[in-house]
Amino acid sequence: MSEKEKEILDAIENSMFMHSGIEGVLEELEDESVKGYVCPMVNHEEFNVVGKARLSENETEQKIAEITDYYKSKGLSVFSWVLSPQSKPYDLEQKLIDFGFKKEIPVLGMVRPVSKELELEINDEFEYKSYRDIEAVELIKSPMIQKLAERAYGMPEGAGQIFNLIGDRLLNIDYNLYIAYDKTNNEPVAFGAISTIPDTKIAVLNGAATLPEYRKRGIYSSFLKLRYELAKSKGLEQLIIQAKEATSAPIASKYGFEKVCELPFYVWRAEKE
Questions:
Q1: Any idea what the Cα angle at residue 29 is, between residues 86 and 166, rounded to 5°?
Q2: How far apart are the first and last CA of the chain?
Q3: Segments of the chain scoring below 70 in pLDDT
Q4: What is the pLDDT of residues 93-146, one digit of tens each?
Q5: Distance CA 42, CA 162 (A)
């Protein structure tokens, strides 16, 4: 593996755990052998996630049990464990399956060079606005975006309040937020974000979601174009994305993103009593 390939793999993995925790809201797992977030207020597998496992063979089963017990102690009945080519031990997938985890969210790590022009048109049926720094943070924390996120992500009502609590953490990174508005009523219908991986020339496309009734209308591809142009203007070299295999990955592949690795999410759910 070349140094460049290793840098991209590291960036894909690190981009999932870029934010520092907030006690009682979005806590970081205190463990040197894994990274993870614990979000007691949102019982959802995409907010409670473990990854970057660097476990020794003889501690793996015990560590899986300890981490599961920790999530349960926080009143959570579901969390996910994301694997990557760098996860250790190499049979971690089987050990998770043996413990009761199920592969539920197939995700691909994908990359695209910024030097390769992206031939895309912006769908002008919608209005797109860009926000950064404090303006982006205030929007993330607003009820408008929180309700949009709840519907777009399929989160429980009220769960969007988590963005109000973690928004200030976005000031620690180079973060840009895009929102698509329906021109007929000026209502927000989708959002997408891009942030630069610290100490690299790599940007991650993150946090994109569209209301169900507005999907398949060119918003996702428009967001791709807008974020690509921003990365190009900043002199960045690579764009990375964690794309769900069944939805965003085929679109990203169509526009020049190539699969680097698989990032399957294995989900543990408590048995119903």
A1: 105
A2: 48
A3: 20-24, 165-166, 168-169, 171, 273
A4: 999 999 999 999 899 999 999 999 998 899 999 999 999 988 888 888 888 888
A5: 8
Cα–Cα distance for residue pair 9/167, rounded to 1 Å = 26
Q: Please name every residue paired with 238 in a beta bridge, in sequence order, or none if there are none.
A: 113, 202
For the chain, what is the mean pLDDT? 90
E strand or H helix at 225: helix 219-233
pLDDT of residue 138: 87
Q: Which domains does the chain have, with CATH numbers?
A: 3-108+264-269 (3.40.630), 116-236 (3.40.630.30)
If one counts every other C-beta atom within 10 angstroms of the C-beta of residue 103, the result is 14
Question: What interhelical angle do 92-99 and 60-73 show, nearest 10?
Answer: 50
Tokens in use for 61? 């089963």
d(CA 111, CA 51): 20
